[in-house]
UniProtKB/TrEMBL annotation:
This protein's name: ABC transporter ATP-binding protein
One Pfam family matching this protein: ABC_tran
PROSITE patterns in the cross-refs: ABC_TRANSPORTER_1, ABC_TRANSPORTER_2
InterPro entries for this protein: AAA+_ATPase (IPR003593), ABC_transporter-like_ATP-bd (IPR003439), ABC_transporter-like_CS (IPR017871), ABC_transpr_LolD-like (IPR015854), MacB-like_ATP-bd (IPR017911), P-loop_NTPase (IPR027417)
Domain ABC transporter: 2-234
Molecular function via GO: ATP binding
Organism of this sequence: Paenibacillus oenotherae
Record's keyword annotation contains Endoplasmic reticulum: no
Higher taxonomy: Bacteria, Bacillati, Bacillota, Bacilli, Bacillales
Keyword annotations: ATP-binding, Nucleotide-binding, Transport
Keyword Cytoplasm belongs to the record: no
Taxonomy, superkingdom: Bacteria
Length: 237
């Protein structure tokens, strides 16, 4: 479902003519199969978000190939990516990225509006999902009127509203208390069981990592797979 081949990424820093290249990812190879849950851990600054931004098409890798749902998306333009994402994936960002002038309901419904879904159907699906995430009673609240955990759940609702076959999430439980976190993990696992949604989740939380069929670690810009002998030497944090 997701295939990364020899992905390298370096950020350019400094002024033109005097640029420094800061390598962040090196030779990343990763295959995530349909219906698999892969969790990705690693220290802060190790390149986790960079990798997720590449898989989500928000960042072009310096080199390497990205295939998703049997398509070579490596050279997709921003418009192509936007269309591709609408069909193939939902993304939960670390900082929610809600639209401040829209209510929780409107933020969640927006992808359905853009898809041209009929108003009655939009309402049904949006309310059902908000309810499932325990935020139906906040439907009319603007993001500024919601706690961090509530905003995060709206971001999650928006990313799930189109029933994407793939969900990418960057520390999705960072602002949730343990009760809401358990609920959210249950929701992800039921989506995975019932709809075979493929999940790639970045986390530093052991409980979140443990829902993975596989847990990978990024270290020094390299991906350590569970079967790598090197991993045995890596002390668990
Ligand atoms: P993580 O999500 O694991 O905490 P990131 O992928 O956000 O790590 O960042 C990895 C490294 O790349 C860090 O050293 C960070 O400072 C650097 N970095 C991230 N984004 C940029 C950027 N836009 N420009 C320059 N450096 C960046
Ligand atoms: Mg990050």
């Amino acid at each position: 479902m997701i295939q990364l081949q020899q992905i390298q990424h370096a950020f350019k820093l400094g002024r033109k003519g005097n640029e420094r290249h800061v390598p962040v990812l090196q030779d990343i190879n990763l295959t995530v199969n349909k219906g698999e849950i892969v969790t990705l851990i690693g220290r802060s600054g190790s390149g986790k978000s960079t990798l997720l931004h590449i898989v989500g098409g928000f960042l072009r890798p310096t080199s390497g190939k990205v295939h998703i749902a049997d398509q070579d998306v490596t050279a997709y333009s921003e418009t192509q990516w936007a269309d591709f994402r609408r069909i193939h994936m939902g993304v939960v960002f670390q900082n929610f990225q809600l639209i401040p002038s829209m209510t929780a309901y409107e933020n969640t419904e927006l992808p359905l509006v853009l898809q041209g879904v009929a108003p009655n159907e939009r309402r049904r699906q949006t309310l059902q999902l908000l309810d499932q995430l325990g935020i139906a009673s906040y439907a009319d609240h603007y993001p500024s009127e919601l706690s961090g955990g509530q905003q995060q759940r709206v971001g999650i609702a928006r990313s799930l509203i189109l029933n994407p076959p793939i969900l990418l999430a960057d520390e999705p439980t960072g602002s949730l208390d343990s009760e809401n976190e358990a609920q959210f993990l249950e929701l992800l696992q039921s989506l995975n069981r019932e709809r075979s949604i493929t999940l790639l989740i970045i986390t530093h939380d052991d409980k979140v990592a443990s829902i993975g069929n596989r847990t990978l670690r990024i270290e020094d810009g390299q991906l350590i797979h569970p079967s790598d002998p090197h991993r045995l030497e890596v002390p668990k944090q």
